[in-house]
Amino acid sequence: MIMPPADEFSPQDDFDAALGGFLDGESPTDFFDAYAEQTLGATPAFRNKLEDRLGVQLRQMALAAEIERKRDKMQGNGHFHIATLPVNPTRDLRSPARIPLTLVAALLMMIIGGVWLVAGNRQTEPDGAPQTGNNQALTAAAVAPSQSPEADNSTAGALLATAQAAQTEALAGITPPQETADLPRLLPPNQGIRATLEAEMTRVFVEFPSSSEDPFNFDLPFDEFPLEWQVWNLSPVVIALQPIHQDEQFTREMLGVVYFPAEILPPDAYGTIEEVVGQNAPVDIPRWTPIQRLYTLQIPVLIEQRFSLPDGEYDQTLPFTLLHPALPLYERDVPDGIRLDLSIPDAPVFRFDAPVTTIEAAEGSSAVIMTIMVPPSMADFITLLMEQGAQIAPQFDAPQ
Amino acid sequence: MQTIDEPVLIEQVQKQHDVRAFRELYRAYFARIYGYVAYRVSRPQDREDVVADVFLKALESLHRFSYRGEGSFAAWLFRIAHNQIATFYRQTRHETLELEEVGELESENAPPERFLLQKETHARLHEFLRQLPPRRQEIITLRFFGGLRNQEIAAILNLDERTVASHLSRGLQDLQALFQKELVEDTQ
Fold it and tell me: What is the pTM of this model?
């Protein structure tokens, strides 16, 4: 206990006299200290637990402050859309008068992304023949809040800057495709996310391990599910562009490169396609899965059952636990909105990492829906890194 | 108390969200806050909730705190504790600490006779404290459990400093009188 300052007790003599009779020579302070510590004292477990909790809370506040700081730079309407284009757009995208600014921004990003994919394919194709039709990178272009032209422009500029910085080499000498029908799809058609910043559920920020061998292996500080927004640096990671079956040999056509946040790179992920080509897959590898050295080593795989991804067969994922912020997604007439629904069967705790992301997940059910929300100031792009066994519902709107 | 550079730590938390700085502040004040709350809130789980709320509230409000010299942070923190306790009672209407709920003494290394004597004395003190008027209970607990100065107590309770000193003096005299009265009864 803290010693009360000796200089202040003006009637100190009175106290000593008053207490001397029953304190048996102890000073009042010593006596009360002993009482407080020994009789009313806290357990070390509680003390430490609270300290840890407060530390987490403070980190959460730091993240929130950072987000707020960045958000303040934009005059948005509180909405943020991650946009993609349908394979067969219903609008004439070449008619500027009919295209919302957000869609223009999206289109710009699609072009950049398309160039990137084309370039990526060229990289993987020695003959330089681009393949744009079948490649689906797990990267989404992003657009800004739709009601503010300034914000649109600002975000679009940021998007362009980021994309250009990340793909300078890929852009060199490549002519962007002109026809929207030729644009590569950055996400599967009619998928994506849209959410409001203000309508989020309870947030719990967690500190993601930056050096852990297993980025998914972490302890949640609370019982609630984590929610994280963060900006990341990117590094290339080889992914599977198509489902790859066990024992199948990796070829260039199967593989692509996306950019992951450097801090949460899949452990031992390959950065170049050349490293992977020619090796055999030890397990079934779902489309878009980062290719890790785990997948090129002939080692026992404990969770191979969770790797099966019935392509295109997920028409609904229920229950819709914690989905309310995503409700706008279900308005069909959202030209500049896309959505991405993740179904994670039997995942007790699902963690979602992305360069710009908030996450939510529910557990205890056979299917978990997760909604991704992206703050506008961090809307350069979004890259998904999913736990093994996580599954994407690629045809959410089209029951099979 | 001031072995830590309190204003610097506070500023680090406020401006940089420095977890290490906050931990230092927390460790410096935890026992004081806990002792203060523990006297006022009976059930251990309740008091832990209140203590947690106090620090969480402090953390959330720290950006608004303005350091005004030594003791100002303690006064601010204990005001939060004071308010949280009041909130707790408004919400739950729990009784204050019952004697039977006073935890076991943990001085395991003390000789048994000393241990028992200490335990008995603490129990008596607790009982006597509860017989004092609420204001005096509050001041004594802030003074001794919280280690606060009269000036800081006055700030928390919106009282004049002399009033605090007077309550403190009379409160301790009341305790003395209660103790002596019991001694007399014991000897009869």
Answer: 0.41
